[in-house]
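agent> step 3/5: call structure_predict on target 'Cytosolic protein' (Lactiplantibacillus pentosus DSM 20314).
agent> reason: downstream docking stage needs a structural representation; sequence fetched in step 2, passing through unchanged.
tool.input:
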Amino acid sequence: MKTLYDVQQLLKKFGVYVYVGKRIWDIELMAIEIDHLYQAGVIDPKLYARVKLVLSHEHRIEAERAREDTAQD
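tool.output (status=ok):
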């Protein structure tokens, strides 16, 4: 589990398809869905931790990108 694409593929295995229209919103919704899968006992703690790390990294990148875009305007 290293990329956002890996997380998307994991979610697809459980029938969860996420597309909200803005990448940062997609990442936030994926995090919520992963939380629900973990709480339901469907994914183990180790996988959960790796997925949350990937999502938090991607979220940070998107937030920085949004700040840069705002600063340029």
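agent> step 4/5: record observation. Residues 2-70 form a domain with the Helix Hairpins fold (CATH 1.10.287.760).
agent> proceeding.
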